[in-house]
Amino acid sequence: MASSALMNTYGRLPVSFTHGIGPCLFDKDGNQYLDAISGVGVNSLGHAHPAVTRAIQHQAGQLIHTSNLYGIDLQQQLATSLTRVSGMDKVFFSNSGAEANEAAIK
């Protein structure tokens, strides 16, 4: 399973996942596992959720990403919703955790 092309920065476990359904992951031998860490926190809705899959497909068919250097109508709508429910005056959308921390410090 080890690859000489990968840096050994993680102590990888001897399992390789091929797909997921809901909260479960499946390896190449068909064994099922509970994804107890939700893909390190980014899959809180589970794997292969039909509504999420449709939303991603729809958005990918329109626009995948643009820089914050440009106006993004849906981002503005989300910002308005977030300020309304949070009671805050402004929101900041960052590209990374490092950028978010830098903005929080500033």
Description:
The chain has 106 residues and is α+β, with helices and mostly antiparallel strands. Helices cover 36% and strands 11% of the residues. It has helices at residues 38-41, 50-60, 73-86, 97-105, and strands spanning 17-21, 24-27, 32-34. The chain has a three-stranded antiparallel beta sheet, with no helix packed on it. The chain is extended. The chain starts with 16 loop residues before the first strand and ends with a helix.
Feature tags:
106 residues; alpha+beta; three-stranded antiparallel sheet; 4 helices; 3 strands; 11% strand; extended
Question: What's the topology here?
Answer:
Elements: E1 17-21, E2 24-27, E3 32-34, H1 38-41, H2 50-60, H3 73-86, H4 97-105
Antiparallel strand pairs: 1-2, 2-3
Spans of at least 5 consecutive residues with low confidence: none
Q: How many strands, what sense, and barrel or not for the largest sheet?
A: 3 strands, antiparallel
Mean pLDDT: 91
Instruction: Give the helix proportion (percent range).
Output: 25-40%
The backbone outline, from C-alpha atoms, is extended
Distance between the termini: 44 Å
Number of strands: 3
Helix tally? 4
Question: Class by helix and strand content?
Answer: alpha+beta
Report the β-strand fraction as a percent range: 5-15%
- Series of secondary-structure elements, N-terminal to C-terminal: EEEHHHH
Major β-sheet strand ordering: 1-2-3
Give the gist of this structure:
This protein is α+β, with helices and mostly antiparallel strands. The protein has helices at 38-41, 50-60, 73-86, 97-105, and strands at residues 17-21, 24-27, 32-34.
